[in-house]
Amino acid sequence: MHMPKRGEITDVVDGMLKIMVFGGVASVGLLAPNAIQALDRPLQLYFKKMDKRDRQRELRKTLDYMRRNGLVRGSYEHGLQITSKGKKRLQKAELDRVNIPIPKHWDKKWRLVLFDIPETKKAGRDGLTHKIKELGFKQLQKSVWIFPHPCRGEIELVCSKYGVDRYVTYIETTHIDKAEVLKNRFKF
Protein backbone atom coordinates (compact mmCIF):
# COMPACT_ATOMS: atom_id res chain seq x y z
CA MET A 1 0.00 0.00 0.00
CA HIS A 2 1.14 3.55 -0.77
CA MET A 3 2.13 5.53 2.36
CA PRO A 4 0.90 9.11 2.03
CA LYS A 5 3.40 11.94 2.12
CA ARG A 6 2.94 14.86 4.53
CA GLY A 7 1.69 17.17 1.76
CA GLU A 8 -0.73 14.53 0.52
CA ILE A 9 -2.19 14.09 4.02
CA THR A 10 -2.67 17.84 4.33
CA ASP A 11 -4.32 17.97 0.90
CA VAL A 12 -6.60 15.06 1.77
CA VAL A 13 -7.70 16.58 5.09
CA ASP A 14 -8.22 20.02 3.53
CA GLY A 15 -10.06 18.47 0.59
CA MET A 16 -12.37 16.51 2.86
CA LEU A 17 -13.10 19.63 4.93
CA LYS A 18 -13.90 21.47 1.71
CA ILE A 19 -16.27 18.72 0.63
CA MET A 20 -18.01 18.80 4.01
CA VAL A 21 -18.54 22.55 3.80
CA PHE A 22 -19.33 23.00 0.11
CA GLY A 23 -20.42 19.59 -1.08
CA GLY A 24 -22.45 18.44 1.88
CA VAL A 25 -21.15 14.87 1.60
CA ALA A 26 -21.74 12.99 4.85
CA SER A 27 -19.06 10.69 6.18
CA VAL A 28 -21.08 7.58 5.34
CA GLY A 29 -21.25 8.79 1.75
CA LEU A 30 -17.49 9.25 1.67
CA LEU A 31 -17.04 5.60 2.56
CA ALA A 32 -19.34 4.36 -0.19
CA PRO A 33 -17.63 2.54 -3.09
CA ASN A 34 -18.44 5.20 -5.69
CA ALA A 35 -17.61 8.16 -3.40
CA ILE A 36 -14.44 8.93 -5.33
CA GLN A 37 -16.52 10.77 -7.95
CA ALA A 38 -17.66 13.22 -5.23
CA LEU A 39 -14.09 14.21 -4.42
CA ASP A 40 -12.31 17.17 -5.92
CA ARG A 41 -9.49 16.50 -8.40
CA PRO A 42 -6.47 16.21 -6.02
CA LEU A 43 -8.36 13.78 -3.81
CA GLN A 44 -9.52 11.75 -6.80
CA LEU A 45 -5.90 11.35 -7.93
CA TYR A 46 -4.77 10.38 -4.43
CA PHE A 47 -7.50 7.79 -3.86
CA LYS A 48 -7.47 6.46 -7.44
CA LYS A 49 -4.13 4.79 -6.67
CA MET A 50 -5.84 2.55 -4.10
CA ASP A 51 -8.14 -0.40 -4.30
CA LYS A 52 -11.58 -0.22 -2.67
CA ARG A 53 -10.49 -1.66 0.69
CA ASP A 54 -7.42 0.57 0.98
CA ARG A 55 -9.45 3.62 0.00
CA GLN A 56 -12.07 2.91 2.68
CA ARG A 57 -9.36 2.28 5.28
CA GLU A 58 -7.56 5.52 4.35
CA LEU A 59 -10.80 7.53 4.45
CA ARG A 60 -11.64 6.14 7.89
CA LYS A 61 -8.13 6.93 9.16
CA THR A 62 -8.39 10.46 7.82
CA LEU A 63 -11.84 11.00 9.33
CA ASP A 64 -10.59 9.62 12.68
CA TYR A 65 -7.62 12.01 12.51
CA MET A 66 -10.00 14.90 11.78
CA ARG A 67 -12.20 13.97 14.79
CA ARG A 68 -9.22 13.54 17.16
CA ASN A 69 -7.89 16.95 16.15
CA GLY A 70 -11.22 18.71 16.60
CA LEU A 71 -11.73 19.52 12.92
CA VAL A 72 -15.04 17.66 12.78
CA ARG A 73 -17.54 16.26 15.30
CA GLY A 74 -20.28 13.67 15.17
CA SER A 75 -20.33 10.07 14.04
CA TYR A 76 -19.92 8.18 10.78
CA GLU A 77 -23.45 6.83 10.89
CA HIS A 78 -25.19 10.13 11.62
CA GLY A 79 -22.81 12.37 9.74
CA LEU A 80 -19.94 14.59 10.70
CA GLN A 81 -20.08 18.36 11.01
CA ILE A 82 -17.13 20.64 10.53
CA THR A 83 -16.14 22.57 13.68
CA SER A 84 -15.01 26.18 13.92
CA LYS A 85 -11.43 24.85 14.17
CA GLY A 86 -11.99 22.94 10.93
CA LYS A 87 -13.42 26.04 9.24
CA LYS A 88 -10.39 28.09 10.32
CA ARG A 89 -8.05 25.45 8.91
CA LEU A 90 -9.98 25.44 5.64
CA GLN A 91 -9.90 29.23 5.43
CA LYS A 92 -6.12 29.22 5.99
CA ALA A 93 -5.68 26.55 3.31
CA GLU A 94 -7.73 28.62 0.85
CA LEU A 95 -5.64 31.72 1.59
CA ASP A 96 -2.43 29.74 1.18
CA ARG A 97 -3.54 28.69 -2.31
CA VAL A 98 -4.23 32.25 -3.50
CA ASN A 99 -1.67 33.34 -6.07
CA ILE A 100 -1.60 35.82 -8.91
CA PRO A 101 -0.92 34.45 -12.39
CA ILE A 102 1.75 36.51 -14.13
CA PRO A 103 1.02 37.17 -17.82
CA LYS A 104 3.81 36.95 -20.40
CA HIS A 105 3.42 40.60 -21.36
CA TRP A 106 2.85 43.55 -19.07
CA ASP A 107 -0.25 45.59 -19.90
CA LYS A 108 1.46 48.79 -18.66
CA LYS A 109 -1.03 49.24 -15.82
CA TRP A 110 -0.24 49.52 -12.14
CA ARG A 111 -2.48 48.05 -9.45
CA LEU A 112 -2.63 49.92 -6.17
CA VAL A 113 -4.07 48.55 -2.95
CA LEU A 114 -4.77 51.23 -0.35
CA PHE A 115 -6.20 50.63 3.07
CA ASP A 116 -7.06 52.34 6.31
CA ILE A 117 -7.96 49.47 8.59
CA PRO A 118 -8.91 50.36 12.18
CA GLU A 119 -6.97 49.04 15.17
CA THR A 120 -9.96 46.87 16.10
CA LYS A 121 -9.23 44.86 12.93
CA LYS A 122 -5.48 44.59 13.55
CA ALA A 123 -5.37 40.83 12.93
CA GLY A 124 -7.07 41.31 9.55
CA ARG A 125 -4.74 44.18 8.66
CA ASP A 126 -1.68 42.13 9.60
CA GLY A 127 -2.98 39.14 7.64
CA LEU A 128 -3.67 41.25 4.56
CA THR A 129 -0.25 42.91 4.74
CA HIS A 130 1.50 39.56 5.10
CA LYS A 131 -0.42 38.04 2.18
CA ILE A 132 0.12 40.92 -0.26
CA LYS A 133 3.85 40.87 0.53
CA GLU A 134 3.81 37.14 -0.13
CA LEU A 135 2.02 37.77 -3.46
CA GLY A 136 4.81 40.12 -4.55
CA PHE A 137 3.38 43.58 -3.88
CA LYS A 138 5.83 46.38 -3.10
CA GLN A 139 5.13 49.04 -0.50
CA LEU A 140 4.81 52.61 -1.78
CA GLN A 141 3.74 54.20 1.49
CA LYS A 142 2.60 52.97 4.88
CA SER A 143 -0.75 51.53 3.72
CA VAL A 144 -0.26 51.76 -0.05
CA TRP A 145 0.97 48.76 -2.02
CA ILE A 146 1.62 48.36 -5.75
CA PHE A 147 1.68 45.48 -8.23
CA PRO A 148 2.04 45.47 -12.04
CA HIS A 149 -0.40 42.67 -12.97
CA PRO A 150 -4.17 42.13 -12.78
CA CYS A 151 -5.18 40.91 -9.34
CA ARG A 152 -8.57 42.41 -8.41
CA GLY A 153 -10.23 39.03 -7.79
CA GLU A 154 -7.38 37.74 -5.67
CA ILE A 155 -7.27 40.93 -3.57
CA GLU A 156 -11.06 40.87 -3.10
CA LEU A 157 -10.85 37.25 -1.95
CA VAL A 158 -8.04 37.93 0.52
CA CYS A 159 -9.76 41.04 1.89
CA SER A 160 -13.01 39.14 2.27
CA LYS A 161 -11.34 36.25 4.10
CA TYR A 162 -9.75 38.67 6.57
CA GLY A 163 -12.97 40.66 6.95
CA VAL A 164 -11.39 43.96 5.90
CA ASP A 165 -12.86 44.46 2.43
CA ARG A 166 -14.78 47.59 3.42
CA TYR A 167 -11.51 49.33 4.38
CA VAL A 168 -9.58 48.52 1.19
CA THR A 169 -9.49 50.33 -2.16
CA TYR A 170 -8.18 48.78 -5.38
CA ILE A 171 -7.03 51.12 -8.17
CA GLU A 172 -5.73 50.48 -11.69
CA THR A 173 -3.76 53.24 -13.37
CA THR A 174 -1.54 53.72 -16.39
CA HIS A 175 0.39 56.64 -14.90
CA ILE A 176 2.39 56.81 -11.71
CA ASP A 177 5.30 59.01 -10.74
CA LYS A 178 8.71 57.34 -10.64
CA ALA A 179 7.53 54.52 -12.91
CA GLU A 180 11.12 53.67 -13.92
CA VAL A 181 12.09 53.11 -10.29
CA LEU A 182 9.05 50.85 -9.87
CA LYS A 183 9.88 48.92 -13.04
CA ASN A 184 13.33 48.25 -11.58
CA ARG A 185 11.80 47.09 -8.28
CA PHE A 186 9.67 44.61 -10.22
CA LYS A 187 12.64 43.69 -12.46
CA PHE A 188 11.16 44.70 -15.81
Sum up the structure in keywords.
188 residues; alpha+beta; Arc Repressor Mutant, subunit A; four-stranded antiparallel beta sheet; 8 helices; 49% helix
**Name given to the CATH architecture of the largest domain:** Orthogonal Bundle
Q: What is the spatial order of strands in the main beta sheet?
A: 4-5-3-6
CATH class of the largest domain: Mainly Alpha
> How many DSSP-defined strands?
6
Unreliable runs, pLDDT <50, ≥5 residues? none
Mean pLDDT: 83
Helical coverage, percent range: 40-55%
**C-alpha Rg (nearest Å):** 21 Å
Report the structural category. Answer: alpha+beta
CATH topology of the largest domain: Arc Repressor Mutant, subunit A
Structure notes:
With 188 residues, the chain is an alpha+beta fold. It has two domains: 6-96, Arc Repressor Mutant, subunit A; 103-185, Alpha-Beta Plaits (2-Layer Sandwich). Helices cover 49% and strands 15% of the residues. Strand 1 (72-75) and strand 2 (79-82) form a beta hairpin. The N and C termini lie far apart (49 Å). The mean pLDDT is 83.
Describe the structure concisely for a colleague.
The protein is α+β, with helices and mostly antiparallel strands and 188 residues long. The chain has 8 helices and 6 strands, in the order ααααββαβαββαβα. It starts with 5 loop residues before the first helix and ends with a helix.
Map the helices and strands:
Layout: H1 6-23, H2 27-30, H3 41-48, H4 52-68, E1 72-75, E2 79-82, H5 84-97, E3 110-115, H6 122-135, E4 138-141, E5 144-147, H7 152-162, E6 168-173, H8 179-185
Antiparallel strand pairs: 1-2, 3-5, 3-6, 4-5
